[in-house]
Amino acid sequence: MVSIFVWWIGEGEVDHELMEHVRVHLAAAFGRPVFLWESPERPRHAYDEKRKQWRTTPILSWLGEAGPGAGKVLAVTDADLFIPILTYVFGEAQLGGSAAVVSLKRLAEPAGGRALLVDRLAKEAVHEVGHAFGLVHCGQEHCVMSRSPAVREVDAKGKDLCSECRIHLDELAGGA
Length: 176
Ligand SMILES: [Zn+2]
Ligand SMILES: [Zn+2]
What we know:
The protein is α/β, with parallel strands linked by helices. The chain has helices at 16-30, 56-66, 114-132, 151-156, 163-173, and strands at residues 4-8, 34-37, 47-48, 53-55, 72-77, 81-82, 91-93, 99-103. The protein has a 5-stranded mixed β-sheet, sandwiched between helices. The chain has a 3-stranded mixed β-sheet with strand order 3-4-6.
């Protein structure tokens, strides 16, 4: 069975409680072992001096080289992420690949207290890892795989995969 690794790659100090929450939520959503991974390495080459943001594509390929080298790896950061065609992204993943990244940065506004921030991060973590398992966007509004371009949509959707996405996940991943 494919394991999932969660790795803090942010600039600030790791928030152990937050990472543990993400770990537990991923384990519940995917029914797979989820481990915390730690290493001081950071994908500095992904920083764009002009935009003062971090580009996700080089982060994802770097995770494949610098990470645990097995299973799926979800990087969590406090850095502002982007892809060239968008102002920012909450996260990105290699569809059906091994790497995903999610950022706290844009999930913090509008502020609603720590519990809400933790909730938002858990949802986006499941969403991006879902992509890494090959799941695409879902039309069910409550499903965690529904598109959420803004925090409003993140807050409106649920934390779990809908029954269709769950079936699709089993087909994609099988026993793996
Ligand atoms: Zn998505
Ligand atoms: Zn769904």
